Structures are given as structure tokens and as C-alpha cells.
Amino acid sequence: MHLQKTAYNSALRAYSPQSKLITGLALLLACLLLDSAPVSLAVIAAVGAVNVALGRIPLIKYIGLLSIPLGFLILGAVTIVFGRAGLNPAQNAAIMSANIFGTDYAVTRASLYAGVSLILRSLGAVSCMYFIALNTYISDISAALISFKFPRLLITLMELVYRYIFVIFDEMARMKTAQDSRLGYLGFKTGLSSLGRLLGSLFIRTLNRCDNMYNALASRGFKGEIPMLERSYKDSRPVWLFGALGCVGLCALRFLEVRG
């Protein structure tokens, strides 16, 4: 819901979803294929500036969204930064080392650079996906996929699955409110018992609501496709220009890094 509210209120929503999808995916591919820490930093900075300045997304909110994957990335990079010592003699001298259960582990300059590069590269890719998700509403994405000649069945399934996510959350919120009103989470043991009952009955309750939702669609003539009204969008040349200049700038930055 948070992402969809942000996308609905974004100032960039007025531009065509096709331009935002292609621009975001092009920058993502450039970030992954060029595989460079400076390029990844440039992607994070440029896309972040566009989201905050042009999309009018609050800076604190955007940083908070980036911090969500950052925690997982740091945990994943630990195994790269802190590896077994002496496996590769060509590596630089250890910056720090430790002996754990009789095995020597060390952090070298090469492993530290590899870990930081992985984090920046992943954050750059996430930033590109945020450019799409925070500025493009789900109905606009579906309209763009239709214009790209994607199968209507896949688009309909995507919309239904997306809708069912909110059905699950809504049903869970109702059940938890009912449990809270009966002091179901008063203590630790009581909370565990209430949580087990909630998870046990959530699937059945959600399945019933999904059946009712499908019956409502069928009663309105649903035949496997959800019709959508076409919207008019602003001139999307600024978005196309951002994508083109961004890809060219990233390639030039990588070229200067190699030459340097």
C-alpha cells in the first residue's frame, strides 16, 4: 500500500509508463553489465535525485525504502568480505583477521572492494526498480504491457495476484483486530497461541474471500480479461532524454575508469 500510494501521488505518474519502464530497465541493465562501483554510485545518485526532485518523493521516505534491501545486502556481503585466509596467495595482505574454531578468516582489500561493489551494484539495480515502482501505478504498468503486446492472460493473472495480496492483508488485519479486542496478545505465550490460530485460519478465510471475488467478477461478465480505459499522458521526452543521457553517461564513466 505504501508503494502504491507513493506511485499514485508521484509527479512523474503523468508521463507515459512505457518511457519509465524502458528507461528504468535500460539503466538497470547498464548498472549490471558495466559492473563498476563508480557506475553504481552514479546510478544511485542520479535515480535518487530524479525520484526526490522530479517525483516529489520525500527524501527521508526514499532513504527509508533504500534501507530495506540494504540490511539484507550487508548480511550477504559479509561472507564475501570475511573469507578464509590463505586460499588465494595473490590477494593483498589481510586488513584484519580472526581464528574461528581453528580456521583463519581474514578481510583483504580485494574482498572488501568486492563486497562494497556488490552492495553498490545491488542498490543501483534496486534504485532503478524503485524508479518504476514509485512513479508508475499498477494499472499504468498493465497498460504499458498491453502496448508491448504481452499476452493478455499473463497481464490478467498479474492483476489478480496483485489484488489477492491486498485481500490477504485485509483479512489478516481483520482477524488480528478481533484477537486484540479479546486480549489475544496480552502475554508472550498467549501471543504465540493467537498467532498460530491466525495463521491456521488465514488460508481458509482468504480462500473464501478470493472465491467470492471471482464470483463477483464472473457475475459481471469476466471472461479472462479485465478491460481498462486508456489514459492520456504528458509529453514523455524528458523521461526518454534522462534514460538516453543516463546510459551514455554511465558508459562514458566506465570508459574513463578503464582508461584511468
Would you write up a description of this structure?
The chain is mainly α. The chain folds into 2 domains: 178 residues, no CATH class; 78 residues, no CATH class. Helices cover 72% and strands 6% of the residues. It has a 3-stranded antiparallel beta sheet. Helix 2 runs antiparallel to helix 5, helix 2 runs parallel beside helix 9 and helix 7 crosses helix 8. The protein is flat. The two termini are 46 Å apart. The relative contact order is 0.16. About 2% of the residues have low confidence.
Provide the fold topology.
Elements: H1 2-9, H2 17-34, H3 37-54, H4 59-81, E1 83-84, E2 94-100, E3 103-108, H5 109-133, H6 138-147, H7 152-181, H8 188-219, H9 237-259
Antiparallel strand pairs: 1-3, 2-3
